[in-house]
Automatic annotation (TrEMBL):
It is found in: Periplasm. The keyword Signal applies. It comes from the Bacteria. It comes from Cytobacillus kochii. This is SsuA/THI5-like domain-containing protein. Belongs to the bacterial solute-binding protein SsuA/TauA family. Residues 1-22 form the signal peptide. GO terms for cellular component: periplasmic space. It holds the Pfam family NMT1_2. The keyword Transport does not apply. Keywords: Signal. Transmembrane segments: none annotated.
Length: 332
């Protein structure tokens, strides 16, 4: 009887010690809801951050949702359905133009170039941009960053996208690749890995990069409401630190190593294509190696939007970009 009481007392003591520790562990974990504008190989560092446990190291439990489109992503953020959005920085400018009381702030950049490639139906060995003139060009959605970067590049090469070719823009993003595959268009603007898949299958041939042509810009960035940063600065800092770890990891490791880690996010794409696509993005500097959104990139973004006739009004860099958290993380 005494032995039983002794063991009962010991178990009670252990329980008393463990309960606070368990409670403390739960309190230290912060849930964060991310909304990505699309599922894209272009966002490889984000998936690396999840799979390598960089968010968990920071005490963050992230839930990733694909919100399918800039408008839907912004609606989800403004309605508090998500905490942080991964989307093109132009969307924060559109929200600002509507007179938002709680501005959407860009606090960490993920990609720093356009992610699309010009794919030709024919195998053109010595491509020049004037070959696009008088062709049927299957472009991206009007007002979206891919289309604006595409138009900017065409104009850079003295091609009027609305006069010198037949520009098709009335096809949904998800149906652009199938439309080209089924015979629509002589040229198409595509993201990876679709561009490489088409090349491998002989459907089309990559002849140029819009990312290389349009220069550095905040193509996709993490953003949230100004109020969220003010109320959760430590959480945003932890989030940014996790992303920075992933950016550095991707930069320091091979394309194949990255591909192997994120393959679960692209079930229908084989490892060879994933590796080839990641290598192509890395070689042209599409993945930002740190989360700081530079002022020069912000201005280039607005110049491209202005050239496309989609810029509501110029917005000062300091109004919608906060680099203080990213700078702090990098200096650590």
């Amino acid at each position: 009887m005494k032995k039983w009481l002794k063991w009962s007392f010991m178990l009670l003591c252990i329980s008393v010690l463990l309960i606070p520790l368990a409670a403390c562990g739960k309190e230290d974990v912060t849930k964060i809801r991310i909304g990505e504008v699309t599922r894209s190989l272009f966002y490889a560092p984000q998936y690396v951050a999840i799979e390598k446990g960089f968010f968990k190291e920071e005490g963050l439990d992230v839930t990733l949702t694909t919100t399918a489109g800039g408008d839907k992503t912004m609606t989800a953020l403004l309605s508090d359905s998500i905490d942080i959005a991964l989307v093109g920085s132009e969307t924060s400018i559109y929200v600002q133009a509507q007179g938002a009381n709680d501005p959407v702030i860009n606090f960490a950049q993920l990609t720093q170039t356009d992610g699309t490639f010009l794919v030709a139906r024919e195998d053109i060995q010595d491509f020049t941009w004037d070959m696009v003139k008088k062709s049927t060009f299957l472009g991206q959605r009007k007002g979206g960053m891919p289309q604006m970067a595409g138009e900017y590049t065409l104009k850079k090469h003295d091609i009027d996208p609305h006069a010198d070719l037949e520009l098709i823009q009335n096809i949904d993003f998800a149906n652009i690749a199938p439309a080209f595959s089924s015979g629509t268009g002589e040229f198409v603007q595509l993201f990876e890995p679709t561009a490489s898949v088409f090349e491998k299958e002989g459907i089309g041939h990559i002849v140029a990069s819009f990312g290389e042509e349009s220069g550095h810009l905040p193509y996709t960035a993490y953003m949230t409401k100004d109020s969220f940063i003010n109320e959760n600065e430590e959480t945003v800092e932890k989030f940014t630190r996790a992303i920075y770890k992933a950016q550095q990891w991707v930069d320091e490791h091979s394309a194949e190593e990255t591909a192997k880690i994120i393959t679960k996010y692209f079930d229908n794409t084989d490892l060879e294509i994933l590796t080839m696509s990641i290598d192509r993005y890395k070689s042209q500097g599409s993945f930002a190696t740190d989360p700081i959104l530079e002022k020069e990139e912000w201005e280039n973004l607005q110049n491209i939007m202005d050239e496309a006739g989609e810029l509501p009004a110029r917005v000062d860099y300091e109004t919608l970009v906060n680099t203080s958290i990213a700078e702090k993380v990098i200096k650590e």
